[in-house]
Amino acid sequence: MQQYLQQDIQFLPGVGPKRADLLRQELQINTFEDLLTYYPFRYVDRSRFYRISEITSDMPQIQIRGKIVGYAAVGKGRGKRLTADFTDGSGQIQLVWFKGAKWIPENYPVGKELVVFGKPTVYQRKLNVVHPELEDPGKKHVVSSKLQSVYSTTEKLKDRYLTSKAISKLMANLVKGLPARFEETMPAWLLQKLNLVNLDTAMRQIHFPDSSGQYKRAELRLKFEELFYIQLNILQNKTDRNRRFKGNVFETVGDSFNTFYRDHLPFELTGAQKKVMKEIRRDMGSGRQMNRLLQGDVGSGKTLVALMSMLIAIDNGFQACIMAPTEILAQQHFKSVSKFLHGMDIRVELLTGSVKKTVRKPIHEALLDGSLHILIGTHALIEDVVQFKNLGFVVIDEQHRFGVAQRARLWKKADVLPHVLVMTATPIPRTLAMTLYGDLDVSVIDELPPGRKPIITRHSFDSKRLMVFGFLKKQLAAGRQAYIVYPLIKESEFMDYKDLEDGYESICRAFPPPDYQVSVVHGKMKPEEKEISMQHFVAGRTHIMVATTVIEVGVDVPNASVMIIESAERFGLSQLHQLRGRVGRGTEQSHCILMSGYKLSQEGKLRLDTMVRTNDGFEIAEVDLKLRGPGNIEGTQQSGVPFNLKIAHLGRDGQILQLARDTAELIITEDPDLKLEKNFIFAKHVKKGNPNRIDWGIIS
Ligand code: ADP
Ligand code: MG
């Protein structure tokens, strides 16, 4: 069987060298097995005929049987088309073609019995089918009594007649040639428990279903299997890591924490913050090394949670650090942590690339002798000269900006691996987090501190720019600051830069000095120039910040209350959400204005509508995941989404994923090494739950 499946695709009857090249290039199909796991993305029901009187325009594809009663050529120019009235005695429907006006009436004359297949729509209040498939019911083989699978193809493949139907024929040849049944990849007890069909049935039914029920069962079995082995693999690694790496036990909650909580905390923690603190404390006391992802929208109070966790580390005699992706972010953390701890006997220092040598030296020394408790900084923390006396707790902000290797170097600075808290403001939907960071535990702050005014978001067309500028003037007059953001897409960096330059000029004209000062930040500037420009804005010396997406992460200017996003339709949803999160940080009402032209794709419109409708980052992330698939979700690019899923969809198969996760958890809890006889088959297949997955835990 394996031999058969590993054969080069060119040896499949009906393929040959030329088609094999195409299949390889266009669909990455190299072997029989690759073709076999090229699953249909839907199927069409050719098993029943509808009566025209039953048809409505919201039906998917339908099949009817009847006669053409007459042809007509209508319209002019691009609207020119051939129409035919078609009847089955119960009603009439119109068939429409925009090409083929000549050969269609010749091949399908008036009065001849025909089968019509296509998607019904309504045009000028008449039901019609555009470019229907027509078949002669006398030809037996064309009208199948079964469901027909539909495979996605490419234009290039279609040009060479490798249509969905052709792929289906190849699949039939492949299945016909199978030398045996498929060997089962899950134990009988599990199939029985979850009522799943066996692999052999599933593989055959997924391509050639006998009924829609059979198709669905085959699909469920294959999706479950795919997701299950990924989860099993993740959980096995995680268990293994927990056994190999011990964590420092932080037993006491001592003076630092208590003093802070009692005397320095200026407000009540939110319920979500309390919940997360409990989760973290449980980890710290468990003897395992904590690896936790803390997700929470901008402004939800993650930094405070990080700070209190660091205080617990300090109470237990350890040092802590925060690593941020940019100098500005590190400075902001330093400022807010120092402010929170003001008056307490805890030493905090800042270490970034721009800190002078003379200042660095005493920091290095204090780290080594243990008199420095909290170090906050950028990549500078990773350098070899930076040595801790006993690092016990590491906070990493906005993790996707750091490479895996960089973090590994930080890990190595301690004898026992420090506890790690990774904070991100890029919400990742649960289903995705479960898979991508399946070996991290996930905490979520899903509640904003009280009294925040939700940001008001509007969508405005470019033609209304003057009104938008008028609004902006009023806000500036009231003492606020504003961001105006232009898109930056790698492939056309030059053009976008031009957009920004033109925009900058027109903004300077509309907001002239000396009344208004405008900062600009874009990717072509040197880091130091960027930094200076940002600082002007942070300090309030400039009123408007014109920028590309470089300002996306982290900058905190509470006085900035207006965010204008140009060509907003060109941004992804999570990026829009990140940008919007730059405002709404102060006490004033904040506004986000999404600018676009009139011409919007359906998806572009959905993105803008979603932004206007909700401020909830998780809801937005879910929509994003459904729209784009996991490969494009912000924050996952660096992990490269190691999963090339063949049949399951992380955005749509959340329930199956949950079932897969729960099932894998039960199995691993009972039998972490998969040694029991009943789990033998898992041990054999667990590797396919992805060999090249990045392990976020073991990276030292
Ligand atoms: P994040 O890091 O999640 O973006 P921060 O920790 O920077 O959020 O918090 C944003 C602001 O909200 C800060 O000014 C912080 O002091 C304040 N804040 C945090 N927690 C609370 C709370 N429970 N109640 C009121 N304000 C809070
Ligand atoms: Mg923050």
Descriptive overview:
This protein is α/β, with parallel strands linked by helices. The protein folds into five domains: 2-41 and 178-184, no CATH class; 48-145, Nucleic acid-binding proteins (OB fold (Dihydrolipoamide Acetyltransferase, E2P)); 194-244 and 653-689, no CATH class; 255-445, 3-Layer(aba) Sandwich (Rossmann fold), CATH 3.40.50; 456-614, Rossmann fold. The protein is built from 24 helices and 22 strands. The strands form four sheets. A seven-stranded mixed beta sheet has the order 6-7-4-3-2-5-8, with no helix packed on it. β21 (560-565), α20 and β22 (591-596) form a beta-alpha-beta unit. The longest helix has 33 residues, at 212-244. The radius of gyration is 31 Å and the shape is globular. Residues 632-642 and 691-700 have low confidence and may be disordered. Residues 302-303 line the site of magnesium ion.
Number of strands: 22
Largest sheet properties: 7 strands, mixed
Low-confidence blocks of residues: 632-642, 691-700
Computed over alpha carbons, the radius of gyration is: 31 Å
Distinct ligands: adenosine-5'-diphosphate, magnesium ion
Level-1 CATH class name of the largest domain? Alpha Beta
Query: Distance between termini?
Result: 40 Å
Secondary-structure-based class equals alpha/beta
Q: Give the neighbour order of strands across the main sheet.
A: 6-7-4-3-2-5-8
Overall outline: globular
| CATH topology descriptor of the largest domain | Rossmann fold
Strand content: 15-25%
Rounded average pLDDT: 86
CATH architecture of the largest domain: 3-Layer(aba) Sandwich
Helix content: 25-40%
Taken together, the total number of domains comes to 5
